[in-house]
C-alpha cells in the first residue's frame, strides 16, 4: 500500500552527484501475449521473479471497489498444485522472501530467492496465473484479513483517510475517486462468481509483464519461461474506458473529521497530468524544491524560522492517467490553517514569478541524480522499475533515459509549470481536523 503521508514528503534523497551504470536488459513477447524482461546482474547470487498485472483500483466498478487490492491477498491462498497455506512456507523454506502491492493502476507480485532457486520462483508465479484456487473459503479468509488491514492502516491510523479524502474531492468521473483499499461493504456484497470473473478478465498473460532480475543464465531462464508460462492461454483483450475530468476552475473546499488525531492538518491539492508527461517530471522537481529536507524553502521558512507549523510538505502524487500535487501543513501555536496556506502561496508566487537560483537548481539536479542511482541500487528496485516502465509508461528503456529528462528541465520550465498548475482557482483546500465528538465519529 501507499507510504505514509510524512514519508511521501521525503521521496527524494539528499546527496551529491552520483553516477550509475546503464541497466542492461532483454525483452520479448511470448505467443500468448505475456511480455518478458530479463536483467542479468551477476554481482550477487540472488534472483527476483516478479509479475506486474495491469489492473488496479481504477479497473473496478463503482459498486465493487476493493477488488484489485483484495486479489493481492487472495492469490496467495493457493493453487491446484500449492495447497492452501503452503505458499509462504515454500518460499521461506527455500531461503526466499515474497510480497505484493497494489495501486490504482497495477498489482505487483514478487519472490526473491537464492539464484539457484529461480525455477521454483518461475513455477510459483506461473501457478498463480494458470491454476489459482478461488473458492469461498479463501474469499472469506482474506475478507477478514483485508478488514483488519483497513482497521489498522486506515480506520485507526492518524491521518489514515487523508489521501482517500483528497481523491474523493478531486475526482468526479475517474475511478481514482475511490480509495485503493476499497469498500468493505462492497467486498461483503460480492459473490464468488464475481471474484472468479475478475480473475478471468485481468489475470491473463497478455495483461502482464514478467521480469526476472539477478544472477541468471539467460538461455536456461528462457527455457524455463517457455516451459511454465507459454502454455497459459491468452485472455480476452481488455476494453478500457477513458475518463476525462472537467477542469477545476474555482477553489473547492472540504472538511474531514478524523477521530484518531488531535492536531489539524490543512491540504492544498491541484489536479495534474499523467506521470508519463514531462510536466509531471517538472512537478517532481518543484516538490523537491519546496519541501525536500530541512533546508527546503517551505520547511526553512514555516517550520524553522516562523515556527508556524509542526510539519510542512509537498509531493507530486503521480499516476497513470492523472496526478495530484499535494501540499500539506500542521499549524502550531497561534497559526491557523489559513495562515499556512498564505505562507505556502507566497512561495508558489515566487516560483511563478522568478527563476530559482542557480545554486538551488544545481542542488535539485544533484538530488535527482542521487535518487536515480538509489532507485536502481538493488535487483528488487531494478525489477520493479523495469516492470513499471513497460506496463505504465510504455517504454522499458526509461530506466536508463528518464534521468535525462530531469537533467534537461530548465529553471524557466519550473517557473512556467508552477504558473500553469499551482493556482488558487485550480485547487482543493481540505481541512483535515480532529473529530468534534470522537465517540460519535467512530
TrEMBL record:
GO terms for biological process: proteolysis. InterPro entries: Metalloenz_LuxS/M16, Pept_M16_N, Peptidase_M16, Peptidase_M16_C. Coiled coil: none annotated. Keywords: Hydrolase, Metalloprotease, Protease, Signal, Zinc. Residues 1-20 form the signal peptide. It comes from the Bacteria. Residues 36-167 form the Peptidase M16 N-terminal domain. It holds the Pfam family Peptidase_M16_C. GO terms for molecular function: metal ion binding; metallopeptidase activity. Residues 191-367 form the Peptidase M16 C-terminal domain. Belongs to the peptidase M16 family. This is Insulinase family protein.
